[in-house]
Design brief:
Layout lengths: L3 H11 L6 H9 L3 E9 L4 E12 L2 E9 L8 H13 L6 E7 L3 H9 L3 E6 L10 E7 L2 H4 L2
Parallel strand pairs: 3-4
Antiparallel strand pairs: 1-2, 2-3, 4-6, 5-6
Length: 148
């Protein structure tokens, strides 16, 4: 609960169609939802570097949100969070993962492809703020995803 304000600040800075704090609170109450945060600890502060929100439904992990603080991007934190979500979901016998990503979000597409996701479809005009299409990506888990 104490992380919601900082998570919401990263969210607002990362997305044009951002979630308000109340949606994160709803996710915390949702029994299929999980939220993980990555923290950076220094001598004078402890800050959230990023977060991931995902659902575990049947044998699937569905990525809802992932965002990294602007000044900490391109350091492998998103990859670490997604790998950790997949590892922790294996307890529930999760066998695959899915997500939607904006067609214009090249950094995210590269990350997901690096982690074994591939495009399986398109959701036309999926994003309300821009009416941009979303690519539907899937990953049937394999050993190489969890290594590195």
């Amino acid at each position: 609960m104490g992380d919601i304000a900082e998570i919401a600040a990263i969210e607002r800075d990362s997305f044009s169609g951002f979630w308000p704090e109340r949606l994160f609170l709803e996710e915390m109450a949702n029994p299929v939802s999980r939220i993980l945060v990555a923290r950076v600890v220094s001598e004078d502060a402890k800050r959230i570097a990023g977060y991931i929100v995902y659902w575990l439904v049947a044998d699937e992990l569905h990525l809802q949100k992932i965002a990294i603080r602007r000044d900490m991007r391109r350091q492998g934190i998103a990859s670490l969070l997604l790998r950790e979500a997949i590892k922790s979901s294996s307890i529930n016998k999760t066998q695959k993962a899915t997500l939607e990503v904006r067609v214009s979000n090249i950094p995210a597409l590269k990350l997901y492809e690096k982690l074994g996701f591939s495009v399986k479809g398109v959701r036309p005009r999926y994003y309300d703020d821009t009416m941009e299409d979303a690519l539907i990506m899937w990953n049937d888990f394999n050993d190489c995803l969890l290594s590195e």
